[in-house]
Amino acid sequence: MIVTVVCDVLGKENNGTTIAAMNLIRSLKAKGYEVRVVCPDKEYAGKESFYVVPTLNLGPINGYIEKNGVSLAKVDKKIMFDAINGADVVHVMLPFSLGRAAVKICGQLNIPVTAGFHAQAENVSAHLKMRNFEPVNRIYYKSRWKKVYQYVDCIHYPTEFIRNVFEQNIRSATEGRVISNGVNKAFIADKPIMHERNGKFKIICTGRYSAEKRQSILIDAVALSKHKDDINVVFAGAGPLKEKLISRSEKKGINASFKFFGRDELIEELHTADLYVHTAEIEIEAIACLEAIASGLVPVIANSPKSATKAYALCDDNLFDYDSAASLAEKIDFWYEHPERVDGCLSMYSDFTKEIDYDVCMDKMENMLLDVVERHTGRSLKKKSIA
Fold first, then answer.
1. Buried b (16+ CB within 10 A) or exposed e, 362-385
2. pLDDT of residue 194
3. Residue 363 near residue 383 (C-beta atoms within 8 A)
């Protein structure tokens, strides 16, 4: 099977969409499939099976986009055609310019196409300072349906949460499958982590530094904690709000560091932490949170109504009121003062981590692509990996 994966945004693996794309690409290649990748990232130019398109020049906001660690794609029809022509199936990661172009070309060539739902409306409206303005969010969903999703053979939803949100707005009749993006086995510790207090209590928070990720509330919560002076916070990520977050942490007088980590470095940070805090107000799946849980960390998660991540909390001690630094400070103090509760909490997550197993999730993605090809063309390309 030849699969073309279309990525309006790729870049560094510092966001859930890129991690999901790379997980799928690596898995399909490991299964022996030919994988072509369309993206706007110049560092892939000349590499086998990569089709690199130009980037958009948006003038005064180019700097803001660069701070987010991404490049935005500009459609080159010839490059797109070359990448798609002859493919058995195309998978679109995002419903933006490359995704729209890919869907049109697939229609012309009668090639089956699937599309992932990795961009929540608020991920876009937040950049316009309008993330809580529902009319704008509804317009986003309707426009993505009109331009992309109504034309695909199957929609991939990372969580039931985002499937419900989209289908309630659109009343979609397109087939959809809920499949986690999965957590790489590298994050799972070879042996149980010994959560012995060595020095300061280390909290890690992973995610892009942006308004909807709400790292500021963790800064404020640590400042309110009874154990403030015994806590170190690691903000693992990158993004446009880095300097503001550094300034806020300095004003609040907390011990905090801000750094983007490669995968191996991030795994080391997770395996040496005492607590994981997920502050995002808007989230489709939160691979970062799943990675932390798989690494053997107790999570404390914002209970935002616009986030799927709250479903990962298995008891009240794993949740805090998303808009309350005092609520988060209370949870931090609880886990600081009750280390004996850690192992019991983690045992509840043993079955949960099986559901996000990388191999199981990637087998499901493979089957989705194979099923679409068979239904669209009548051809059965390969025995399926799972039932």
1. bbbbbbbbbbbbeebeeeeeeeee
2. 53
3. no
